[in-house]
Design goal:
single chain, alpha/beta, 6-stranded parallel beta sheet, 4-stranded parallel beta sheet
Length: about 150
């Protein structure tokens, strides 16, 4: 009986301690939980997904979290501004966004020091200015350590 009690206790402890919280999906857009990317970002924790509805978002976001930024498609979801990925955001994914009019020192997507394993998929970069010239393309300001990984699909 004592062996059975110990076995049940150990099994219960493994179940309780082994449980991890699952990543959340934060919905962004008109009539959604969050109406701005900034508000959703503030509420997010590592590994969450920001599910971004069609629309135009005029914001610049500086991230220090590992997130998935998932737009409805580059023809439907546009960020007028910049996405700055700093330390802590390694492993982030950006998909289905159009990013344009980043007019500053830096690019539409700015990868800060020590940022690695960033994935950009199905994104459109348009009317971005880097150094005073209209690039009409993806502008990435890569200041991270040598050997970092950036996947562009």
């Amino acid at each position: 009986m004592k062996t059975l009690s110990i076995l049940l206790f150990v099994s219960f402890a493994v179940l309780c301690l082994g449980h991890t919280a699952s990543a959340a999906i934060l919905r962004v857009g008109l009539n959604q939980t969050y109406t701005t990317l900034t508000a959703a970002y503030t509420a997010a924790v590592n590994d969450d997904t920001l599910l971004i509805s069609p629309g135009v978002y005029s914001e610049t976001i500086t991230s220090t979290k590992r997130l998935t930024w998932l737009g409805a498609g580059y023809d439907e979801t546009r960020l007028n501004g910049r996405l700055i990925l700093n330390a802590g955001s390694s492993g982030s994914k950006v998909e289905g966004l159009q990013i344009q009019t980043a007019m500053s020192n830096g690019g539409a997507v700015d990868l800060g020091p020590a940022v690695d394993l960033i994935s950009l998929k199905r994104c459109l970069f348009e009317n971005n200015y880097l150094g005073g010239s209209n690039q009409n393309m993806m502008c990435i300001n890569r200041t991270s350590m040598p050997g970092g990984s950036l996947e562009i699909v």
